[in-house]
Amino acid sequence: MPVMFQRAANAAALLALVGAPAFATQLTGTVLDAGGQPVAGALVVATSETALTDAHGVARRWIATSDAAGHFAFDGFPAGACHVTANAGAGRVGVAAAPCAVKSSDAAVDLPVSVSAQAAHIHGQVRHAPQDPAAAGDLVLLARVSADGDAAMVVLAAPVADGAWAIDLPAGTWMAKAVTAAGESRVLPLAVPGQVGPVVLSVSPTHPAHPEIARELHAMAEKDQAVRDALIAGGKYDDASTRPMARVDRANLARLRQIVRRHGWPDAAMVGNAGVGDFWLLAQHAPGDFIAQALPHLKAAADRGEIAWSTLALMIDRDLMDRGQPQVYGSQWNGSGQAMQMYKVVDPEHLDERRAQVGLGPIAEYEALLRKQYP
Fold it and tell me: Can you give the pTM of this predicted structure?
């Protein structure tokens, strides 16, 4: 499956922080350490499988801090299945042993949450624009992702202190997002174990220098995705079927070249994090010469946390494939359905290790998703 047919992954707005709706039940509990003793000051997050979003379509999250006796409470919690997690600092992170269940007849539900060391210690930074300094109460929210790529209901929170954050995470694929008074970062994927180095979450500047270019890049990206959605839905990749996509790509490329000539390579200060992400998507579908020029600038953006390294991995592989060299992360495939084959890859025995280092899940899961998307 050539990269030009790839659909951008949608992380979705799954990590928003909002208040509770008006339900009667109180959800309470106690955070305990491995010895059964109460833990004070733990950051507790609850999620509901029934009240998924508010009236604006934003995911609901309930967050509290355990008191001196380890107790926490959420008023107005909805009936249905729910999940509770706690983070009490290094070596003390826990997910409730079983999902809680709130009945409509319950006045209150009590739940213990045990915290202990988890599979991997993850740390990183939250970066703000110069005009938007860090503030007390900044958080990093992390949602565990299921094998089929959908975000699960398990959400953990890590406080940000002096621009740094850290947490011990259970094994699995996670999505991380900084939520601050100044705004939110992009959602970045993490693979545990396997993630190495600090995870940088960049909060987009409140006032980028060229919001009009950011809006234009977003409109171009929407056209890019719409024409690819239509192509995938049609299930044919012959010359006639791909002609509309080629027209859109040519027009987008011409405009990208104009933007770069007049304003330089887009970064968050220029177009915001979302604009950098849209620029990556459009550049990913450009010819090899433009990709080669864009790569150093997008690598710098990934180092700053403006786009995900997992995203950039696709472009690194695409560039290598265009130059006839083995890819690094296994993102490039040819064909469709059962005939789909991965383009040659360097050191295949350690492929999953390299994928994990940039936040990508196992290659077997990626292959299953590709075969499902391109039958």
Answer: 0.73
